[in-house]
Amino acid sequence: MNRTTLSLLAGTAALAAVTGFATLSSPQAATTAGTAAELPVERTSLLCPEPSTSEVAETSYTSFTPVTKNTGNDGKAELKAAAEESDGQNQNQSQSKNKGKDKSKGKKKAAKPVLTPKEPGTPVTGDTSGGDAPALVGTAEGKFAPGWTVQETTEVAAGAGRGLQGVNCSAPDTEFWFPGASTAADRTDYVHLTNPDDSAAVVDIELYGKDGALDSSLGEGITVAPHSSDPILLSTLTEEKQEDLTVHVNVRSGRVGAAVQALDDKLGGDWLAASTDPSGSLVLPGIPKDATAVRLVAYTPSDSDADLKVRLASPSGLITPAGNETLHVKGGMTTAVDLGDVTRGEAGSLVLTPTDDSVPVVAALRVVRGKGANQETAFIPATRPVGPRATVADNSAKGSTLSLTAPTRTATVKVTASAGSEGGEAVSKTFTIKAGTTQNVEAPTPTGLKGTFALTVEHVSGGPVYGARTLAATEDGVPGFTIQTLPDDRGMVAVPEADEDLSVLQK
Known about the structure:
- The protein has 507 residues and is mainly beta.
- It has two helices and 39 strands.
- The strands form ten sheets. Strands 11, 13, 14, 15 and 17 form a five-stranded antiparallel beta sheet that branches. Strands 20, 22, 23, 24 and 26 form a five-stranded antiparallel beta sheet that branches. A four-stranded antiparallel beta sheet has the order 3-8-5-6, with no helix packed on it.
- The protein starts with 9 loop residues before the first helix and ends in an 11-residue tail after the last strand.
């Protein structure tokens, strides 16, 4: 779901609460002229999971807010360390990675800001090293809130999960789906739960394998203390070893941020972000053109089976992978299929559509680059379209690839490279993406670039566009990489015009 926490001006917020007219903007729901206006969000929250316990980990954070009209001149944004892990009441089931930390009495500790952006339009970066970096809790207000994006990128030189790991810090929510997790012998997967609020959150973690739900009473009623983060080791929730799992995080009370860290003994590792809400049609954008192995994992929460048409949006159009024309997903069961080197050396995105009746599905791809001992893994979850605007931070002049796909109709987008974190001027460029294709576009770089920069994609015309960004950094022959999708930033909300007839509210 990944809904952004919104706080409008007092008058419009109260009006929205009564009428229910304030809705998040989306490409499917346009505002009717004369009945509503779109205004920037006034407040938003983002949560960054604990990056690594490896002593050789090097982590960077990048915060960026695109310039947005009608925001005023006030506001602030900051990221702070979440309080240390909860008071130990769940330690027997989580097998937390923070065993050496002081968890006594669950006391809150004053946290200094890790990052404090100074102005929209310019990224701010921060770095940390080693295995003690905490989870972060962030808020942005006023001019910093609309489209606020924070990227967490970690390089791990050796050990399980070695390579490049990256994740977009996400908004707190009450439900998450993670197809593509695992409890196989060579995998160590954690689901990270971060609670930003003043009251405890109660969470259920459900696991679904190839034969349905796995027995796991330890996943029920997990308490995440206020202002804290708990990494839950999946293998402690079940004795079953399964290569492909779907993890369902359901919050009974409160709200949390959630992400799965998947660490492989041989294939490196990365973060698995949540899939978009269950839907009959899904798009998984940005498969690297040099991918050597692609595995599709899908799950339907419906009692009915789902039959999906599998197509690859290539640079020349939609094609059907030989031998994988369709995918049958049994109700309540996780299904996985190997697609091999499906891109055949070209940019590609996977498009899933129902063959007959539409049944809601979640899905993700596990992507491998390299061969033999020099392999690395990343994940691509099904995602929302770019919508009016989407942003991804922590790009560099080399090693960043922006992939865009228009699965149904030709579309035009504007891509803006922000000013650099240490200097440079923003540059924009317009691209047309033909229907049914995926293009690795030559994104602009800031003039006089110093440091890193953000890429903002704005929908100009045509059909929906989906996007993903790949960061790559080869070290010691290992092709380290990480992929982040670009869903709509939901930085605007539609609210009623002030001169509407509100007499119905008095009845």
